[in-house]
Amino acid sequence: MKRFTLRKSLYLFPTLLLSVIAVTATATESFYSRLHRLGALRGPQQSMRTVGAARSPREFPRRVYPTMDITREVTGVDRLQSGSSDLIPFTGKGVTIAVIDAGIDPTHIAFSRRGEGSRVVRYLRTTSAAESDQGEVQIQEFTDMSALKRADIDTTTESHGTHTAGTAAGTTEVSPYAGIAPDADLFLVSMGYSLYDDEIAAGLHSAMNYADQSGTPLVMSLSLGSAVGSHRGDNPLTESLRDYPSQGRITLFAAGNDGMNNISLQRDFAEDPEELATGMARVFTGTPAQHVYTEIYSLDSKEFEVGFAVISLEGERREVWRSRFLTAADFDEQGDCLVLNSQTQECLLPGLSSYFQGLIALGLETEEDAPFSMGLYADFGNLPLEHPYVLAMLLRSPQGASVMAVTDFSCANFKSYGVEGYVTGDPRNSISDYCTSPLVVSVGAWNARDSWTDISDTQHPLVTSFYGDYQAPGLYSSYGYVRGTDSRLPHLLAPGTDVISSMQSQYLSDDAAFVTTINGREYKWGAMTGTSMATPAMAGIVALWLEACPTLTRDDIIEVIAATSAHDESTLQAPQGSAYGKVNAYDGLRYILTTLSLPGTVTDNYPDKLMVRHLGGGEVECAVPFSCTEGSASVYTAQGSHLFTRPLTDGAVRFHLPSGVHIVTATTSQGTATQKIVIP
Predict the structure, then answer these.
(1) Pick from 404, 372, 377: which is nearest to 308 by CA?
(2) Torsion (CA) 541, 545, 551, 553 in degrees, nearest 10
(3) How many of the other CB atoms lie within 10 Å of CB of 560?
């Protein structure tokens, strides 16, 4: 029976900006509605709406919150954009990048098409069912530049989405801080500051539908998420990606910025049966938390129990009150358990009211083939910093469950307070829950820039005490594993520290990195830090790879980064490292063109192979792997009959092939390169 009604909050990953608490409704009146009746939450009652294919009614909506020049150089993208002796220039042409974010200005000049107007093919401005008077997701859709000029521009989240979109696909013509795929089309979904996963799902599905209708390959960049979740790869939002074809549809999520935060606990009670006890501390100050949002998961169906205690901060820090442990039997039929409500008598542990005024609630989920799970929500209103008592959580499992607890860092973290028998949390499960899905690519961040200079000539050096060493993984970059496996996450690292990209002008003054005025309007570029910045950089790289082969799948991308990304001493030693190291866009594309087994290109054992780019409709472009650019290319049938010969231009040739199997041979003074090509 599915009974879990307390759900997690999510957030964007900008310059380490943090989220606030949120709880989601179910289709029944249940836990969320009870919190409303008790005055614990404010705002309109949520109505649940599924988006896309039918989903469990508990899944939507949840609350969500808002995480180039050097990037192009260190990842090898400059070599791809300009072309080289062995590769055709790649700029993302013919590929759509969907940026699903907040704070997007679709009219920024960074999104222009080399003097031919805007590359924004769609701009969606969404409102969640939780915020809508209609009780369902609202979408304003704009499809042309004239409409965009009249659009409701999202100015929230300090230009987060404008920055990420510019990182992925900013133009090369108006700023030295161009994006990775400057010729890609842009599908922009902007959701405002108060984000929920029903509108994220709406953005994902709208982008997928557009790609199906337009016939273009698609990469989706999502710089949002939360460490709170089961970490088993079964998040309902990412699971909805199974409803769409896998070829040419790549989804990337940011790892998160909790790599230094004590937000997780783990204990295998079969090996260590002692109880696990921790205090709930306010972020940054370490004082008693006024809000708590935590989820606790067993690795399987084995049950655990939750108790509460109160720590006194007066004099010697110690426990002054302890509850009994609560089990599944303490929950009602809807999976709700009110531990404390200081305004009514409706609670299990009224003794807590001597120390805290507010609400503490638990939600329970028990479902076949799902882990035994609980969620903890606490709201103590305007609890003063000097409050003398700390709420503590206690865990035990007579059944010997392997338990993981993760808390939302925007509210609280786990702290021992020096009390004997208590523990402090760690970042070992800090990876965003979305990133554990087998359907997505997860992206962490490394420090590719040691300083930058703004327009007032002020130098901004890398803050190594906070971000880590130059060329090392960002200390903030989240990490972890898919629970129950040895699959290390994130998959790879891309530059994420002090990334300079397009921003809305109102958020920058003298600390802008670049400013230009075009047709009387001022445009600015500035620096931001986070895995939010690394993710669109990787999205742009994937767009270049999709330009070469539009049929790539997520598993193909994992194979490419596993074969071509680079580990160094810093990525191997740091816990914030990744499965495969730092991305190399250039080597990745060479691998795709010469090694990866792909539909449309059949690689036989030829000593030298042509580089092949499929342009759609039977049109292909081939380049020779030699420095000599003069010569010719001949096309033969699979049976050896000559069809035609074309001269090479700058080492490349483009032609249209009918359906079937063809052998293409290009000859220069330095040798001959051959490739077998299949046109469906």
Answers:
(1) 377
(2) -50
(3) 27
392-436 pLDDT tens trace = 999 999 999 999 999 999 899 999 999 999 999 999 999 999 999
The dihedral formed by the CA atoms of 76, 80, 81 and 86, expressed in degrees to the nearest 10: 140
Both structure tokens of 144: 């042309």
Instruction: Write out residues in the chain with pLDDT < 70, as ranges.
Output: 1-68, 83-88, 115, 597-608, 638, 680
Identify which of 378, 384, 304, 311 has the alpha carbon closest to the alpha carbon of residue 347.
378
Instruction: Give 450-470 as a DSSP string.
Output: SEEE-TT--EEE--HHHH-ST
Task: Classify residue 182 as exposed, middle or buried by CB count within 10 Å of its CB (0-12, 13-18, 19+).
Answer: buried
For 443, 534, 627, the CA distances from 221, given in Å and listed in that order, are 10, 10, 36
- Tokens 């049929």 belong to which residue? 551
Radius of gyration of the chain (CA): 27
The pLDDT tens digits of the residues spanning 242-259 come to 998 889 999 999 999 999
Contact between residue 64 and residue 100 where contact means Cβ atoms under 8 Å apart: no
In DSSP terms, 451 is beta-bridged to: 461
User: What's the Cα-to-Cα distance from 499 to each of 141, 443, 526, 527, 573, rounded to whole Å?
Assistant: 30, 15, 8, 5, 24
Distance CA 360, CA 349 (A): 10
- C-alpha torsion sign, points 22, 26, 28, 31: negative
DSSP readout, 122-181?
EEEEEE-TTT-TTSS-EEEEE-SHHHHTTS-----GGGHHHHHHHHHH--SSS-SS--S-
Q: At 256, which amino acid appears?
A: G
Rounded Cα gap, residues 576 and 260, in angstroms: 9
Q: Which candidate, 145, 156, 161, places its Cα nearest to that of 104?
A: 161
Identify whether the C-beta of residue 241 lies closer than 8 Å to the C-beta of residue 204: yes
Q: Which residues pair with 453 in a beta bridge?
A: 459
